């Protein structure tokens, strides 16, 4: 067990180093967040909506942008494994697909969570919303959704990366399945923005946990099948 | 060996579907509120059952292929996915026809079942796109992975849409609230569901046989041996 | 150890890529300590067979059973991370393979000067040496080498042969080595067995632990056929 965990830590380190050297995922997430936030801000402004309507739209716009930004940024996440076929070297060394998968999920969750924080800040500026009172809870919601997103996208990125359509395929196959995560994020954010806290007895955290559990179970069991020849 | 029964199965399906049409258009009286348009119900609900069955078949075939790596299971999964996609399209279209008659609008996002079928249709679509544009060497494995995840997501999608605060009970709760009072309604409903399920199974079987023949032709082309 | 003392058993393995059947019900078994030269024309199925033996590729039918828990594979794919440095790669693969000491092998393969550089920035020859280091850093029980000398100069080849001998010594002579190669000039002297692949099947086999004479005869026949 200790050896398994120490190998996992080593793999997390490897993923971190790879992303730090290339900065591809981080750059794509940041650029996407900025571009979409600007587009949304310009669009809402030209629609001349009142403050109440903008407040109601905030959650929806945040989550649409976050989902699109994440699914399009992840397209190159598997490229470095394919370039030198390093993942096959790890398989030869006795590393399991589950370990590789979990290491990638950890790193992707971290980057998604950071990107969510950036996006929340940019959108609140763009739409002139004051979210300082709820930023902590909002980040928790974003973190939870980020880990669910990462759990699914790591697996589906491995599926899409060798296809003819490459990155274009990933949003097509991921977004329908991510519908529950999208709804969870949107509803919890709406509660926070309108009422300052989650509703008592809100079912959404449980739905999010169920979605994430399902994606993790699928990923742990199927990732190795997805990457192997 | 099963192919011997194909003509009989085709005839039986044609018969059941024909009887269902007879019941729907000739036996069942016009519904009080919606009139003749209400007959869409028999096609819509029956097709929905067939769609669920096709999706379940994709799920089982995907797990089976990943466990056994039997090519026939993959071909069956592809067949079920394509037929399921067609049936899902029919559910959406008939649902919108019925909805427009009932709500004067083609689509209502508050309606959980309609939205669930829209998401289901998108999952079927993504399955088809992956099968056609995925890595040719790994399309079977990747398609099976998506089949498993997609099918497993459906209950969660339905549950999460139903939990939405604006989720409205717009969908007619015909069966649950004892709407089919006249026995002929039940007969028509039962036969149309049976007919659609038979039709779905038959179409999957046809598509499966096409897939097997295609694979056999490729194998013969490769080796010149009998396909085993 | 498996039945009949075989470290590796390949039975009736078939593999098809698209319209091309690369391996056709191929069978082969290897005993511990053998040094097998796998020869054949381009497209004979050597690389495919090695990948299947390593467990990186799945045969369409047939069975591969391997009693060695550690398999090393060296091919034109480096199985390394190009953006990580040589040191980072060797530490990663060494640690998961069961050893944390990379200095010794780095010195033997003359990689000490490039330890801090990303693998992708090295020449093909130096990359090949890093690949050798990755393969032998924790000596495996079965080593599969696919055209190992294609990017190596004379010195590199000598270092590779040295690592093979060192690996055999570390495993008490039990390390089995299968080398797929066209480089008969440099590698035929190390072989105890020659297997000739042709069109996805074993066309000739000198037999296990054959004498140098028989190995040479088998190679001569192969050269004649392929002239």
Judging from the principal axes of the Cα atoms, what is the shape of chain C? globular
List the quaternary state of the chains: heterotrimer
Largest interface: A-B, 31 and 31 residues
The amount of helix of chain B comes to over 70%
Arithmetic mean of pLDDT of chain B: 84
Number of strands of chain C: 9
Cα-based radius of gyration of chain C, to the nearest Å: 17 Å
How would you describe this protein?
The complex is a heterotrimer of chains A (229), B (228) and C (227). Chain A has 229 residues and is mostly helical. Chain A has one domain (2-227). Chain A is 80% helix and 0% strand. Chain A has helices at 2-22, 24-47, 51-73, 79-84, 86-92, 97-126, 135-160, 169-174, 179-195, 204-227. The two termini of chain A are 28 Å apart. The radius of gyration of chain C is 17 Å and the shape is globular. With 227 residues, chain C is of the alpha/beta class. The chains are: A mainly alpha (229), B mainly alpha (228), C alpha/beta (227). Chain A binds chain B through residues 152, 155-156, 159, 162-165, 169, 172-173, 175-177, 179-180, 183-184, 187, 203-204, 207, 210-211, 214-215, 218, 222, 225-226, 229, and chain B through 66, 119, 122-123, 125-127, 129-130, 133-135, 137-138, 141-142, 145-146, 148-150, 152-153, 156-157, 159-161, 163-165.
């Amino acid at each position: 067990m200790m050896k398994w965990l120490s190998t996992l830590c080593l793999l997390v380190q490897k993923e971190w180093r790879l992303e730090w050297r290339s900065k591809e995922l981080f750059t794509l997430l940041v650029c996407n967040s900025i571009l979409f936030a600007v587009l949304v801000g310009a669009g809402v402004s030209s629609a001349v909506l009142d403050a109440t309507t903008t407040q109601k739209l905030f959650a929806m716009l945040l989550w649409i942008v976050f989902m699109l930004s994440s699914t399009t940024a992840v397209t190159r996440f598997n490229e470095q494994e394919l370039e030198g076929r390093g993942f096959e070297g790890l398989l030869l060394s006795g590393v399991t697909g589950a370990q590789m998968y979990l290491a990638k999920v950890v790193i992707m969750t971290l980057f998604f969570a950071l990107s969510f924080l950036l996006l929340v800040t940019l959108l609140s500026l763009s739409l002139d919303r004051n979210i300082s009172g709820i930023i902590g809870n909002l980040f928790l919601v974003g973190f939870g959704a980020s880990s669910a997103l990462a759990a699914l996208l790591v697996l589906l990125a491995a599926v899409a990366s060798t296809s003819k359509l490459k990155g274009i395929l990933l949003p097509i196959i991921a977004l329908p399945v991510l519908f529950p995560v999208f709804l969870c994020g949107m509803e919890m954010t709406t509660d926070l923005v309108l009422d300052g806290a989650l509703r008592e007895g809100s079912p959404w955290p449980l739905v999010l946990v169920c979605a994430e559990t399902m994606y993790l179970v699928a990923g742990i069991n199927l990732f190795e099948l997805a990457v192997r020849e | 060996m099963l192919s011997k029964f194909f003509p009989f199965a085709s005839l039986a399906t044609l018969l059941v579907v024909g009887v269902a049409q007879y019941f729907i258009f000739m036996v069942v009286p016009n519904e009080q509120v919606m009139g003749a348009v209400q007959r869409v119900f028999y096609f819509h609900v029956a097709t929905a059952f067939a769609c669920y069955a096709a999706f379940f078949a994709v799920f089982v075939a995907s797990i089976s292929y990943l466990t056994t790596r039997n090519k026939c299971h993959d071909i069956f999964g592809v067949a079920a996915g394509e037929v399921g996609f067609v049936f899902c399209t029919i559910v959406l279209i008939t649902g919108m026809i019925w909805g427009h008659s009932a709500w004067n609008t083609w689509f209502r996002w508050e309606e959980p079942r309609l939205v669930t079928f829209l998401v289901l249709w998108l999952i079927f679509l993504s399955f088809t796109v992956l099968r056609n544009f995925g890595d040719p060497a790994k399309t079977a494995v990747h398609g099976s992975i998506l089949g498993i995840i997609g099918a497993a997501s459906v209950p969660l999608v339905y549950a999460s849409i139903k939990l939405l605060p604006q989720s409205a009970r717009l969908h007619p709760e015909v069966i649950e609230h004892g709407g089919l009072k006249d026995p002929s309604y039940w007969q028509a409903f039962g036969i149309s569901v049976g007919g659609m399920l038979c039709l779905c199974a038959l179409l999957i079987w046809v598509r499966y046989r096409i897939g097997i023949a295609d694979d056999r032709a490729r194998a013969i082309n490769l080796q010149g041996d009998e396909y085993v | 150890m498996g039945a009949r003392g075989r470290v590796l058993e390949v039975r009736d393995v078939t593999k098809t890529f698209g319209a091309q059947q690369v391996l056709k019900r191929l069978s082969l078994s290897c005993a511990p300590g053998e040094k097998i030269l796998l020869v054949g024309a381009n497209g004979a199925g050597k690389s495919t067979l090695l990948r299947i033996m390593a467990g990186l590729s799945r045969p369409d039918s047939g069975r591969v059973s391997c009693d060695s828990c550690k398999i090393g594979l060296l091919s034109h794919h480096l199985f390394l991370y190009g953006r990580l440095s040589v040191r980072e790669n060797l530490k990663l693969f060494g640690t998961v393979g069961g050893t944390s000491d990379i200095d010794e092998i780095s010195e033997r393969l003359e990689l000490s000067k490039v330890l801090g550089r990303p693998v992708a920035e090295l020449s093909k020859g130096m990359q090949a040496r890093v690949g050798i280091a990755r393969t032998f850093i924790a000596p495996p029980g079965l080593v599969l080498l696919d055209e190992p000398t294609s990017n190596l100069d004379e010195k590199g080849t000598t270092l590779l042969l040295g690592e093979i001998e060192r690996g055999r010594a570390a495993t008490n002579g039990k390390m089995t080595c299968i080398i797929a190669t066209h480089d008969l000039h440099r590698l035929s002297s190390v072989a105890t067995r020659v297997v000739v692949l042709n069109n996805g099947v074993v066309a000739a086999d000198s037999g296990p632990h054959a004498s140098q004479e028989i190995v040479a005869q088998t190679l001569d026949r192969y050269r004649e056929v392929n002239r």
